[in-house]
Amino acid sequence: MRIEEVIAVLGVVGHDPALVCARTGESLSVMWCNAAMARAAGRDAVDLHGEDFLALLGDEADTELGYWLAAALAAGRPFRGMLPFRTGGGATLWGECQASPLGTAEDGGCTHWVLLIRDITPDMDLRDALAGAKAEAERIRARLWAAIEAAPDAFALYDSDDRLVMFNERYRELYGESRAALTLGTPFEEILREGLARGQYPDAAGREEEWLAVRLARHREPKGPIEQELPGDRHLQIREQRTPEGDTVGFRIDVTELKRQSRVLESQARALAEQMERMRELARTDTLTGVGNRRGLDLQMRAMAERPPPPGQGRAFLHIDLDRFKQINDMSGHAAGDRVLQEVAGILGRSVRPQDYVARVGGDEFAILIEAEDAGRVADGVAARVIEACRLPVFHDGVACRFGASIGIAIAPESGETAGLMENADIALYAAKAQGRNRAARFTADLRHAAEDRKRLADDLLRALERGEQIRAWYHPQVRAEDGGVAGVEALVRWHHPERGVLPPDAFLDVADDLDVTAEIDRRILRAALETAASLAAQGLALPKVSVNVSYGRLARADLSAEVARLGPLPCRVAFELLETIDFDRDGGELMWTIDALREQGCEIEIDDFGSGRASLSTLLQLRPERLKIDRRLVAALDGEGAGGSPLIRAIADMARALGIRLSAEGVETEAQAAALRGLGCDVLQGHLFAPPLEVEELADWLADRAAAPASSPA
Q1: pLDDT-based confidence at 145, cuts 50/70/90?
Q2: What architecture is domain 286-443?
């Protein structure tokens, strides 16, 4: 759903406060809020636009919850928890906040967040009221004790022979069943027996003599207050004290109401404790799948780190990432994706032991924490069961959703301290995906070294981009197939690493993708290529065309056409080569605006590595590229296909001819390949048969030599 549609829906049906925030770097800014949110904040909705969301939180914000909110927003995953918000009157609105990501950013995060807030201030007020009531009850109880000491409700005095010598009317009222025996001079035991006979002491029923013996002993040697129950759920507290003369002074305080209040408070306290526990459990549970969430996993890891494993046991951490999950969301919708996630959670639950911990830690990422004897063997067994179960499709609305699972496994103590398990499992997961996905990989020291080397390479790449010197353009000449004349060059990126030498794109572009700097590299190569073309033209060595590769990230940014315009008049024709692996069927609508704008500026569009990806006929009809470049792997196969050429290349040529699209080929190494490609209709050839990729100075010499040589052979 688009952001505008989300806002429209919230504007109609939203009764609770709601916001839509745009991600700006590390923070969120309010781009829309409904009237309920504006009223809660005591401000106009317009005034809230552009406000930092975290600035709306009240001073009562829990630091740990704020941390997890920030972590969730940074990782682009949903969040749910209790947060305080400032109101216009200075009060605090407590809300149960549910934050959901919306829109995918280039860094893998999201572009916007939808935040729905349910007002739970009354619940929090009830909690505070219960706490206050409990404190107030304790205060009243203390005051009541003081009042009892000063003026007890019921008073009785027995002499040293335990005969009643004094009592007040309140004493008579309390012990109504013993009324006949309440006369001066009556022994204390006789008064008790009268009460027992008339059922005055419910807790003595069935054990009257035992009860009587205990009560008389306590009376003769008072040892603190006595709790006594009377009929009708009435409760007394008896305080007795021996005087120096041997008399016994007794006070009876009616604590019935206090007892009832205590029971009510205890019941409310239990209910509140249960509610708080449910809320804590909710904060540790993924609401979609019912397994633990990232917070729950962190708490589990923290608790595990604070204690050593039981003797003879080890620990294992499995990081599970679903393969092809994004395609399920894109092609079948988020409901299908949710169905898959729920099924995967069930698979994980059935694949582990009851004592193992399962959590969903990201959009399509799960984790399993194991503590067992031979933890590595147990973890390998779990991984094998999960991978096998994930090979089976999940059906949603009759559609089979097919996916897989890649798993990274880290074992302690093999992987070091327990705190390093998660990081090491991430490293192993990366290796599993690099090996072809849908498999498990164990963490090893070699994998860490490879990850550290990749980290060093990433740091070096960022420094190289900062210096602006090491990332350079090399040029691979392209010739006309008919006569060998210069058709243009393809600008290629090379990294002149100070220690590793000249690195080709395959050595670092995947790192650049992880760093989200591929678009910046594309921009620099485009600028360098145009400067080279202008410089060569000034030397009388004009290039007919410069082709540059463009990544999806660069193409998806609307400023690409604006940048081309800022470069001024182009010194030659410019072609943008798009990888066939870009999913035009899914993203074509978003990319076509940029492509059309580039065409309006005189630029051409070519599809690179054609025959290796997934471009469909509908994509070609929609995109209408000026040229298809046949993938070098298809060209290499020509040596074994005979003069007729590859059937696949013939099919591509027939399709291109039918659509009016020109053909070129890369990776041409032999005269036989060149001849076959000419026969199949390729009018531009590129490969080492003509020249390797060249630096600027070498390109100038090659062009000069080519200009001086007769244009009679394509080689």
Answers
A1: very low
A2: 2-Layer Sandwich (3.30)
